[in-house]
Amino acid sequence: MAEKQFPKGFLWGGATAANQYEGGWDLGGRGPATSDTAKAVRPEERQNLEGFSAAMTREKVEFALHDKEGLYPKRWGTDFYHRYKEDIALFAEMGFKTFRLSIAWSRIFPNGDDAQPNEEGLAFYDAVFDELGKYGIEPLVTLSHYETPIHLALEYGGWKDRRVIAFFEKYARTVFERYQDKVKYWLTFNEINIMGISGYVGGGLLFEDGKQNFQDLYQAAHHQFVASSLAVKAAREINPQFQVGMMLARMQAYPATCNPLDVMEEIKKDHENLFFSDVQVRGKYPAYAKRFFKEKGIELEIADGDLELLAQYPVDFMSFSYYMSSVARASEGSGEKTAGNFSLGEKNPYLEASDWGWQIDPVGLRITLNNLYDRYQVPLFIVENGLGALDKVEADGSIHDSYRIDYMKAHIEQMYEAIEDGVELMGYTPWGCIDLVSASTSEMSKRYGFIYVDADDEGHGTYDRSRKDSFYWYQEVIESNGASVLNEKGAEQE
């Protein structure tokens, strides 16, 4: 039997975000961003993600910006700003074909609405892309990853103001033109559906009464849809070779039982999740949105030409994050609850869970890949997946993270099965390929990386980099194009 491996040209790599990794928040002309107001969550509250989705007010933002006592780890991340050459060399040593990173919008336009871009910020990313190019690593660049310039939040209320569309288009055109010979793959908004959960994280929305409302959340989402299409339009004009994708936090749901009401609840959950990709990939609002908007009291302000723009400039491919699945039940049952990716759901008795309560479901990834490809028939890209865990550094400096290897191996096997099912999968960039600050809790303890960073939750440490066991394992996976996993004894078992 021929050796199994992934398709030729498969893009193996890793993923990061400027707001959790880059640091240098007050250097190089960068302006403050919404992520800079994210305070570290206390250990006893870390499995509760409600704080992540809480409404932000102007008062809370102003306090955070002037707070001298609080801990705001996303401001320093794990210092890619100063260590990018060292980190990229480690990525090259692992054999990365691609590296997903985000550009900090406020490093290019410090206020978001500036007349001219910040040259020092542009030059920084020039240096990063040149370094990646030196090793033949293809950048995969997210334009907006949870780091809206704070000025746009305070002055305009974030993305609920239509004027922000033009600011984003100007930013997109600026970086497209600057890096047109260095970057091919782009994503517009990271996990765009998070706008339906956290308006502040997703788009700098402020709610002075301390309560989010669906009207503002979905109006802001509409503005991002239009901005994304304008970015696709700009990309095609500037460099027809560009590939622009959308990015969804995929939340695969299963009905709790075969009760038709539970099955219908699962369909409803899917609609809530896939609404965002339906608009960006299909180029139009789905029919089921009409009922959702009616029930939630949402009346979108849609300008002349908006719908035509969405239809004319959908994205080229779909990317998504996948960490876990969830269970849908029509009525409140006695099922045990578990922590999830920005949401809470019923525990699935067939699955194990991480230390943070995220249930581990490799087969769910195959299900998701099949469902998404059946639905959209466009190339798919897994741009986030991984296991957040507590890593122990041994006396000799080694880190034996077999649990991470087991997690990755199981998901890679299911990716291959999905490709065999007929899914067109472009690549795989596991999340936090190097340790970085957690998105939801701003802690360092929850580590995802193949590369360990010597820093603790308070920001203390040398920030030196070291290789975990998973580093060498992933190196072999990439070198063999997946064959080292797929041809292991027992790998064929499902």
Automatic annotation (TrEMBL):
Q: Which InterPro entries match?
A: GH, GH_1_N_CS, Glyco_hydro_1, Glyco_hydro_1_AS
Record-annotated active site: 384 (nucleophile)
One Pfam family named in its UniProt record: Glyco_hydro_1
Q: Which residues form the signal peptide?
A: none
Q: Which domain of life is it from?
A: Bacteria
Record-annotated membrane-spanning stretches? none
Family annotation (SUPFAM superfamilies):
(Trans)glycosidases
Keywords linked to the UniProt accession: Glycosidase, Hydrolase
Record keywords: Hydrolase included?
Answer: yes
Under the heading PANTHER family, the entry gives:
6-PHOSPHO-BETA-GLUCOSIDASE ASCB-RELATED (PTHR10353:SF122), GLYCOSYL HYDROLASE (PTHR10353)
Q: Which family does it belong to?
A: Belongs to the glycosyl hydrolase 1 family.
Question: What name does UniProt use for this protein?
Answer: 6-phospho-beta-glucosidase
Q: Which organism is it from?
A: Streptococcus panodentis
